Amino acid sequence: MTQRPHAKTRHFITTAWLGIYLLLNLFVANNCELAQHRLAFSLASLSLPFFFLSCGRFVACLFSLPLTAIVVVNLYIIIHYHKITYDICMAIAGTDSADAANMLRTIPITSFLLAGLLLGGVLYATARAARFRPLYALFGLIGCALTFTIALHRPLNRDIAGHYNVAITYDSVHRHYINSPYFAKNLAFYVNLPGFIGTSLATLALNQGYQQAKAYRHSLTFTPHEHINSALLPGRVVGEKNIILIIGESDAARHHGLYGYTEQDTTPHLRTLAARGALCAISNAHSAASMTHNAVPMMISFLTPQNRRAILTEKNLIELARAHGYKTLWVGSHEGTSLYNSPIGYLSNFSEQVVRPDYSTLPLSVREHDDESLLPVLQHQLEIYRQEAAGHFIIIHLIGSHVSYQEKTTPEDRRALPHAGSYDQAIHHVDHLIATILHMVEQTLPHSTLLYSADHGEILTSPDNGMHGVYDGGQEQYRIPIYFAGLHHAAYCQQAEALRQTDGTFSQLMEKYILLTMMGYQLAPEALHAARQQDLILHSDGETYDYNRLPGPKAP
């Protein structure tokens, strides 16, 4: 009789443990955008805790550690991004150690303390609830096997799977880029195992995906693609001698002075250049995606929200520049072989000369996530190009104002804006980088035109923290600054005005047509007219939306 109160307590703790597990898994499942069978799987997944709670205290506590960590991570993503999309799983899977460290630094210490308290509570409850019951453990194991087998053999919606049928990744063993269907294959974890189990297994599978990809190996070469986009007409006119494209990162237009920002003087150099007529800004401009691995390829290739295979089938801007006699250079502080950056690495390798942190065709090097290290490389190459008769197409890919912001600043930025948050200080540093590059170009390649465009915007949650890729974040994470400078810059700002969408915005998708004009290509008026009729976005959930019908608020 003395055991009965303890037995009742244990039964209560066990019931509460399983109930909380079920509610949390169902909560996460309901915040997975493409997930199916949410309630059915959440109920069936109870076989997992039922299994390890029957394996004895030590094994149960051992299992509860990673399970709790998975729950905490999923809850944090939902709190931070409001939804867990498959693209977010891809982003997490593709994050390298440097990016992960930067992201961890942005998480408040209170979050870690709460996670520690939760872990302690789970370990205590697990130790009280767990008992060694071999028969129950066997039933739980059989239930797990049946649940996962049935779930993973459910057919995927073809439309959903089709969104991920372009899977550029880097085979680090054979050292070449490949295209494989494993993005769509691993989608089954996310869709059919909804909740923190599905998202975690999908992320893990994506992270290890290149191992699976070897079974479907289709090596991607850097020989020119055969097809030319239908917007290009035969023949050519005289283009600009030198074209420089600077790609920014996580750069919100509303924090630039030329876009109306008055709280801090974040862009003094750009303001000065505009005042003397050496630079113009495109108002009401937005990106075509809110995540780098989607946005940058749209700037360099004919990939669009509606045609994602164009990156593999049509000549990109680097190929088209080379076809018109330009020498090409890609220099950037992003590496190009991780899961997340592979599409960017693949495109950059079409350039004759490439300098990335992980790869260089020149006896020069840059440091990852260090834009200052790009400047000596650029200066060195510009001095060489000064002596050449050929024109040049140069792409400079910055880490810019990506989190963590403080690491993207220098003492000079902090002294210039001592009372500003680190994001504004990072924008101040981007302003310095653009001005420095412009000065280099003016001194070495005076017959040049420059375009600066961010890959996407940023949503600031505080002066020192922010995010993008938020499902219901609305338009703010898409609003970007676009600047033209150098020779004939005013003419290209006028062209941008003529290429606005019918809703009055300027889409990042139209930048390629301006760059092609700079290269001397002639464009079909009917193709430009058709491109202006729709204002489409590839959103963080993998779906295509009209810019004015995005989930969340419109930008101010």
UniProtKB/TrEMBL annotation:
The keyword Transmembrane applies. GO terms for molecular function: transferase activity. It is a multi-pass membrane protein. The chain crosses the membrane at residues 12-29, 35-53, 60-79, 107-127, 134-152. It is found in: Cell membrane. Residues 241-482 form the Sulfatase N-terminal domain. Gene3D superfamilies: Alkaline Phosphatase, subunit A. Keywords: Cell membrane, Membrane, Transferase, Transmembrane, Transmembrane helix. It holds the Pfam family Sulfatase. InterPro entries: Alkaline_phosphatase_core_sf, PEA_transf_C, PEA_transferase, Sulfatase_N. Its main location: membrane. PANTHER family: INNER MEMBRANE PROTEIN, PHOSPHOETHANOLAMINE TRANSFERASE EPTC. This is Phosphoethanolamine transferase. It comes from Bombella saccharophila.
